[in-house]
Amino acid sequence: MDKVQIDEAGLKHLIETFYARVRQDDMIGPLFNDAVHDWPDHLERLTAFWSSIMLGSGRYKGQPVPAHMQHKDRIAPEMFDRWLRLWQMTTDELMAPEAAAQLQAKAARIAESLGLALFFKPATFAHTRRATNAPQPEKAE
């Protein structure tokens, strides 16, 4: 099978294949199937998102963080890991190695950003900042 390119047609095929797998997944499928009421529209929006990210098309006009915040009570951090594993498997299978690596790197950054938006704990961050800004102990000679 020929590997898919990072172009509009390739992204459409990737998104359709990937989310067919997501919908069947035991861990994250139920959340997606409950949250998405119009799969064809959602897949088009996701294709526009990835087109904007990977091709700079500017087709995506949504706001992913508020969309995910609506489901915060049902999203667990390990769900991001599962999503990323499925993404890696699908991109490795469908895409040329360099394209798969690019898509995986973008997905990891997106997952990290969404995870921070959903699970960020200011008290933990303040503690980390204090520790980082604290004077370092002198080295013993």
Can you describe what's shown?
With about 140 residues, this protein is mainly alpha-helical. The protein has helices at about 10-25, 30-35, 40-55, 65-70, 75-95, 95-120, 120-135. The protein is globular. Residues about 125-135 have low confidence and may be disordered.
The major beta sheet can be summarized as: none
**Overall 3D form:** globular
- Give the low-confidence spans: 124-137
Helix share of residues?
A: over 70%
N-to-C CA distance: 62 Å
What is the number of helices?
7
What amount of the residues lies in strands?
under 5%
Topology as a string of helices (H) and strands (E)? HHHHHHH
Number of strands: 0
Radius of gyration: 18 Å
Mean pLDDT, all residues = 85
Output the structural class. Answer: mainly alpha
